[in-house]
Amino acid sequence: MNSRRDYRGTRAALFDGIEEGGIRASSYSSHEIDEHENDQAIEGLQDRVNILKRLTGDIHEEVESHNRVLDRMGNDMDTSRGILSGTVDRFKMVFETKSSRRMATLVASFLALFLLIYYLTK
């Protein structure tokens, strides 16, 4: 609040020398005017810093959200890998015996025939 008063006081000082007929010599030095410009530049930088702070906060939230999605996806992939390895183990058991190989060949042939007919009718 004190800086606001200083700002108003400085602003009044800047326009103090203006009259209807022109500008009269001001009693303030260029050092005080430079200080006012510096204060304005600092305020502008503070605004930019606040914007960047909010932006980095938003980026942080987005990164956290993506990390959660990737963690869930990794867990789902691990679950799928477990299910798939169990299925592969079952297929290995089926192909160990000769009669099972014949059955698997028959099933694969019917599946290939079905896919061929499907693509021909499409």
Automatic annotation (TrEMBL):
Its main location: endoplasmic reticulum. Keywords: Coiled coil, Endoplasmic reticulum, Golgi apparatus, Membrane, Protein transport, Transmembrane, Transmembrane helix, Transport. It is a single-pass type IV membrane protein. InterPro entries: BET1_SNARE, T_SNARE_dom. Residues 32-94 form the T-SNARE coiled-coil homology domain. The keyword Membrane applies. It is found in: Endoplasmic reticulum membrane; Golgi apparatus membrane. The keyword Protein transport applies. GO terms for biological process: protein transport. The chain crosses the membrane at residues 103-121. GO terms for cellular component: endoplasmic reticulum membrane; Golgi membrane. Required for vesicular transport from the ER to the Golgi complex. Functions as a SNARE associated with ER-derived vesicles. Belongs to the BET1 family. This is Bet1-like SNARE 1-1. It comes from Elaeis guineensis var. tenera. The lineage of its organism: Eukaryota, Viridiplantae, Streptophyta, Embryophyta, Tracheophyta. The gene is LOC105059094.
